[in-house]
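#lab-general

N.A. 3:47 PM
ok so I finally got the sequence cleaned up, no stray characters, all 271 residues accounted for. can someone with queue access submit it? mine expired

B.Y. 3:52 PM
send it over

N.A. 3:53 PM
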Amino acid sequence: MPEAMGFFTDTTVCIGCKACEVACKEWNQLPAHSGGRREMSGDSYDNTVRLSGTEWRHVKFIEQFHEDRHTSGDRWLMMSDVCKHCVQAGCLEVCPTNAIIRTEFDTVVIQSDACNGCRLCIAACPFGVIDINPVSHTAQKCTLCYDRLQNGMEPACSKACPTDSIRFGSIVELKKIADQRVSQLHAQGEMRARLYGADDKFLGALNSFYLLVDNPEVYGLPANPKLPTRNLRLSSLLSTAGAFLMAMLGIVTLRKRRMDAMATSPASFDA
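B.Y. 4:20 PM
back already:
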């Protein structure tokens, strides 16, 4: 059994070149947006805007500047976002056709030929990763280049990254590298450096985890993502209570109708 594989993304060395986006689109033959004629978003240099069924990689640009643009501490934050390949994946949990599978590499893959386009996985993903591909009309996302892994090749995005911001390898080794990098940044005075998704505090850990230098929300990441099943207990209690109230209302309504019928029946007037 192969060991768990994934990505460690060090956002401190991302230069926003978008080589990962291009490599992903080329290898997976994903269609261009509007035939390649994309309108400018007006959101910094980010014209991809978000992950989608045809954008499986998205380089985020976060500008942290004061109005005068000359204040100490002004900076860019950049992060190449992708599917997190959660150890406990909400999308896999809700898929009614078993189109979403966990591979031998502990990655999460959608089989398009088994997808019925129901969109349940889209709602179940706390990271907003999955979307419908307008060409295939099925849910799609990053596969962590499953076809390349099966042939002993590195995923296209990490292979193309010029600064090794995106590291690919075994999860065990990547976590060691990540811990060393955090220690190095702390020693250099960057005390805000932290890992996101490397431990099992949420979703059993992420097989695509990050080194951040600000709060997760700044990067558009949820601070405490949860599985859809988190609502099962409360939903069950509410459903049971609702069913009980409906039953009581039905009994009261039926009793009232019978009383009204008895009150207006001929026998009641004879008495």
